[in-house]
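Cross-posted from the bioinformatics board.
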Amino acid sequence: MANYFSFRNLKFLLYEVFDAEKLTQYEHYRDHDRQSFDMILETAKQIADNILYPIYREMDEKEPDLVSGKVAVHQGIGKYLKAMGEAGMIGATYSYEVGGGQVPATVYSLASFILSAANNAASMYTGLSSGAARLIINFGNQEQKDLYVPKMLSGEWQGTMALTEPQAGSSLSDVSASAKPLGEGKYLIKGQKVFISAGEHDQAENIIHLLLARIEGAPAGIKGISLFIVPKYRIENGSFQPNGVVAGGIYHKMGQKGTPAMHLMLGDNNDCIGYLVGEPHQGLKYMFQMMNEARLGVGLMSAAIATTAYYHALQYANERPQGRRLNEKDQKTTPQTKIINHPDVRRMLLFQKAVAEGSLSLLMECSRYFDLAEVSAGEEKAKYQMLLDLLTPIAKTFPSEYGIKAVSEAMQVFGGYGYCKDFPIEQLYRDIRITTIYEGTSAIQSQDLLGRKVTMQNGAALMALMQEISQTLQEATTYENLKKYAETLQKELGRMQQVLQKLIPFAMQGNYERFLADANLFMEMAGLVVVAWQWLKQAVVAQKQLLTQSLAESDVAFYESKIQTMRYFFAYELPKTKWLATRLLDDEVITIVEAKAEWIV
Amino acid sequence: MANYFSFRNLKFLLYEVFDAEKLTQYEHYRDHDRQSFDMILETAKQIADNILYPIYREMDEKEPDLVSGKVAVHQGIGKYLKAMGEAGMIGATYSYEVGGGQVPATVYSLASFILSAANNAASMYTGLSSGAARLIINFGNQEQKDLYVPKMLSGEWQGTMALTEPQAGSSLSDVSASAKPLGEGKYLIKGQKVFISAGEHDQAENIIHLLLARIEGAPAGIKGISLFIVPKYRIENGSFQPNGVVAGGIYHKMGQKGTPAMHLMLGDNNDCIGYLVGEPHQGLKYMFQMMNEARLGVGLMSAAIATTAYYHALQYANERPQGRRLNEKDQKTTPQTKIINHPDVRRMLLFQKAVAEGSLSLLMECSRYFDLAEVSAGEEKAKYQMLLDLLTPIAKTFPSEYGIKAVSEAMQVFGGYGYCKDFPIEQLYRDIRITTIYEGTSAIQSQDLLGRKVTMQNGAALMALMQEISQTLQEATTYENLKKYAETLQKELGRMQQVLQKLIPFAMQGNYERFLADANLFMEMAGLVVVAWQWLKQAVVAQKQLLTQSLAESDVAFYESKIQTMRYFFAYELPKTKWLATRLLDDEVITIVEAKAEWIV
C-alpha cells in the first residue's frame, strides 16, 4: 500500500492543534472520546486502503458510459457504499434520532479527507448522499425523514444535488425547472438539469435528487425557487415506480471519470413527481446549507488530492538519483544524488506540503467553528457561525486554486514520467482541475467573500477573524524564533485593511462592478493570509513540543519539518500579497467594459 | 473552420513590429519578398486547416499503441508529412545547396506556430525531422548529407532526437549508451533511450535517430559524448536493412497522445550500427544546437496552444449568456448578459491574450536574432548570437509555464463545459502540460539562464539586452500615454540588477548551490520583464498607427486592443516581480539541504 497521506499529521492537527477532545465536554458529543475519534479515522483508513485506493486507476480507465438510459459504474462503488453505510460513516455527524453518530465535524472531515486522498472520484458518492440527507433532516417533514434518510445513510440509496441548468450555470436565479402543484405537497416537475454528479448509476437501488425548481406563479429571481425531493423511483404502496427522471446524456470529463456527471430530463411525459421540502420559495436558502457544506467538501477534496500527489512526489524524489549537487567539486565521478537534494526539487516539495497541510489546517479550523456553532448558543453561536461563513469561500478556493498548482509541481518532480500513465500523478492532475469549478467557481466564491462576507454586519465577521488571528500572533511572540513571523503576519493584516479601505467606498457608491472587479485577487490575498495564520498556528504547537517534551527522533523531525514548512510559506508564498495589493490599490481600470469598448480581436 | 489563431496578429508582428521585409536586403534572403513570406504563411494555413485541425481530436481519441514492435499512428500524419515535404516546408530555412528555401526563421517560426496551433501533436513530427536534418547539414559529412537530408526534407523519412536514458534524464553527462568502433566511421551501438518522440511509427519509410552515445574509452562526463546517426533501417547496396533498433515500449501520456513517445532498445543482438557525426566527443556541443532550436520550438508550441485555447474561450465568452452585470439595477427581469461583460471573465481573457501574444512576440524576437546572426559577421554576429543565447531559456520557459496557466484560465471561462470532451479545451490543457518538461525542465532552463547565460562574458549578453530594451523605452517615451509604462519597465530593470548584485557574489564564492537555489524565481522575474518589453514594443507600434494613419474601424480595434493588453500586463502581471524580488533578496535559506536535515515526514 502506497503512502498517500500521513496519519501522524492528521493526529497532530486533530489533537495537538485543534484539541478535538475538548469537544467531548459538550453534551452533544459526550459519548465520544479520543478512542472513538481514532476509531472513526481507522475505519476510514480501512475502507480507503481496502476498497478505494485499489480501484482508483481502474475507475478512470474504465470510464462509465450511458447505455439505454443506464450507467454501469465500477462495482467497487457498491461495496464502498455498503461498507460506509454499515460502518455508520455516511451519517456519522447527524444526531442519534435520525440514525447518526453525533461525531464532530472536526473528526469527520478527516475521515472524508482520508477517503478522498485514496480515491476522490469514489468519495463523491457518499459526500453527495450525506449532504442531501442533511437537507431532508433539517428542512423535510417527518414522513420524508422516515422514508429517505435511513436508506441514504445506509448507502442503499444515492443522494444528489440537482441545481444547474443548461441556461443558468452559475446564475441560480435563472433556474427555470417548473413545479405544478398537485396538492398534498406533491408537484409535477418539468425541466432539465446538467452536470448532476452520480445523477444516474447502477450501484444504488434508488437515487434521491434534491432539486431546485420554480412553483408556477412564483416570483422571478432567487426568491421564487423551491426545493424538492425528486426520486428516481417513487415509492407507491411500498413498491418502486419509475418517476420520469430520464438520463438524457452523460458528460465525458477530463478527470474524476469514475463519477458520472449526468444530464437529466425531468417530466417530459408529465410523469415526474417532486415532493416539496419545507416552505415554498425558500429553496435557495435551504440549498445554501448543502452548498456551503459541499464547498468545504470540495476544499477538503482538493487538499486530499494535493496530499496524495505530494506523497507520491516525495517518495519519487527520495528514490530517484539524478545529477550531482551543484557545490560538488567532482561532477564527473561522484555518483548521482537523489533529486530531493536539489534545492529546486525541495522547493517544489515544500510548496506541495505547504499547500496540502496548510489547506487541511484551514478546513479543520472551519470544522471546529462548525462544531462550536452546533454546541453553543446566543452571541457565541453567532460568532462561530459568522467565522464559518467568512472562511467558507476561502476554504474552498485556496485549496482548489493552489492545489491545482501543487499537483502540477508534483508532476514536475517526476519529469517525463509524471506525464505518463506509469504513475498516478497524471490522473490526480486531471482530477483536481475540476475543483475550482465545482460548487461555484472561484469567481463566484470571490464575489461571495468580498461582496457579502467581508462586509456583512458592518465587517463583524472580519473583526472576529482578526481577533482569532491575533490570539495566534500573541502565542507566537512568546517564542523567540517565531516572533519575526508573527510580525510579518501582523503587517499583512494591515495590508488587507488598506486594500479594503480602498475598495469598500466603491460599494458604498453603489459601484459594485468596480468594487468586485478584482475580487479574485482579493481572494488570493485573503487565502495567503489565513493559510499563513494556519501555518503559524501549527508552528506554535510544534515549537512548544520541541521545547518542552522529550521526544522520539521521528517526532523531532516531524515538528521541525512543520516549522520549516511554515518558514517556506512565509518566505515564498506570503510575499505574493505585495503584488496583489499593488494591483488592488491601483486606480487603473482595465477589465470593466465601457460603453464604447469593442474589444479583443 | 474554427478561428484558432489570428492572421492579423501574425502580420502585425511580422511586418509592423519586426519588419521582416528588411531582411530581404541581405544577400542570403535576396530572393524573398513580402509576397513569398505571405505565401509561406498561407501554405502553412492551408495544411493546418485542411489536414491538421480536422484530425486534432481524433489523434487524441485513437491513441496509438505498440503492437508487435510496430506503432500505427493516424494516417493523417502520412498526408501531413507528404504535404509538408512537397511544399518544401520541412527544410524551408536551410540553404539552397541542401534543398532548402533560405526562408528567414522570423517567417518560418510563424508557419510552425500556425501548424502547432492547429494540431500540436502533429507538428512535432516535422519539427523533429527539421531539427535532426539541420544537425546532419551542419556537422555531417557529404555522404551523410546526400543520403539522409533529402529524404528527411521530403517527409519520407522521420528524424528524432535520441538523448534521454532511463538513468540519466536531465543529467546528460550520465548518458551511457555505448559505441564500439568498427572503422570507417561506423560504430556498434548498444543501449537504451527513453521518451523518444516519433521514435517509431508507420507513416514514414525510415526513422533517423540522432543519438548520443559514448565511444569506448571516452572520458567520463559531458566531454566523452559523441553524436551518431542511427537509422531504423540502414541502407546496404541500396536496400533497407533492419538496424537493431527495437521499440521496447510506448509511453501512454496524458496529452499529445498522437505523437508516440518510445522506449528504444539498441543493439541487443550486436546488430545496431551508428554513423559518427563530426568529431568524436563533440556530440553534446552539436546536440546543443538542435536542443536550442527545439527549446524555441517548445516555446512556440506553448504559445500556439495558448492561442488556440484563447480563441476558443473568446468565442465562448462572446456567445454564452450568464448572469447580469453587477451594476445592473434590475437583476430580476433584465436578460442575461454575455459572460465577456463580466470583469473577471475579461481579466481571464486578457491574461490569455497577454500570455499568448506576448510569448509569440518574444519568440519572434529570438527568430530575428537568429536571422541577423546568420547574415552578419564579426562583432555584430557575436552580439546577435549572444542575445539569442540569453533569451532562449526564457523563451522556452515563460511561454510554457504561463501557457499552462493560460489554458487553465481558458478552461475556467468555459466552467464545467471546459472540463468535458464537448470542447477541445480539455485536450489543450492536457497537451500543453508537457511543455515545461520537454527539452529541459524549467529548472534546467533556469539554471542555464542564471548560471550560464547571465554571467557569460562578464554579463555582456545582459548588457546587450538592456540596450535593446532601452531602445524600446526611448521610443515609448515619445508617446504621452506610454511614458508611464516605460518608466515602470525602467524601474524593473533596476530591480533585476539589484537581485543580480545580491546573487552573483555567491557564485564568486563558489557557492553555486546558494547562487542557483531560487533560479526558477529569477527566471520568472526575467520572463515577466522581457515579455513586458515585448508588450511595450507592440504598444509603441500600435500607438504610432493610431496617431498617424487613417485606419479602418477593425484596425482601430486591433491596435487599441494591443494597448489594452499591454496595460493589462503592466497592471496585473509585471508587479509579480515585487514578490519575486522580495524572496530573491531575502537571506533566509530554506531549500538547501544541510548535513543534519532529515526532512519531510
